[in-house]
Amino acid sequence: MSNPTDNPDTGVKLTTTPPEANKSADLKADAGKPGEPKADTRKPAAAKAKAEAADIGRTASAAADEAKASVADLAEKAKQGFSEATEQARGMAEDQKAAGADRVKGIAGAINRAADELEDEIPQVARLVRLAAGEAEHLADEIRRRDLTDLVGVVHDYARRQPAVFLGVSALASFAAVRFLMTSAEKRATAARTADGGAAYPTRSQPAGTPGTRDFRAG
Predict the structure, then answer these.
(1) CB of 166 closer than 8 Å to CB of 158
(2) Pairwise CA distance, residues 163 & 23, whole Å
(3) pTM (2 d.p.)
(4) Which end of the chain is more exposed for a tag (fewer CB within 10 A), N or C?
């Protein structure tokens, strides 16, 4: 509240205002000024959160890319390992196929030799046995030439087209092989006895002599 005072020079009364009143008036004047926005403390916090979220997103994207690269690398290694195993298995199968062809070729040769043994005794059978040998040789060639997946189909197709010949030749081949082996064994035994100075034919057991003689053999 203002207090009037006398000016000694002019004699005019002056009014003075207390300091508290001046401060209150200044605050009111400041509050009433238009166009001056108040400071917003929420904006820096929002910007910081946005920056942190962007950093997290970049980190997650980098981790995802690294995981994808690791998975792709593992898949490529697995593919290479499977390819190598497949090639190795194919190589082993080819080796087995070649060995099988060699066996069949050997059987064909044995059947031909058996046919030679039968030529004088049973020429009709010998001709069929030679047919079996020819089929065995053809099968050996097919084994070498064809892929493994085709071999079963080749045998089935031949058996379907010529079942009688297929079964008959198989039986004759077995018979001829057994006959050839028996004949070969007899020849080897005869050759061994001849080399030892014995007879070239099987010896029969001699009857025992009478007691007291040189030919007597105890039973």
Answers:
(1) yes
(2) 125
(3) 0.38
(4) C
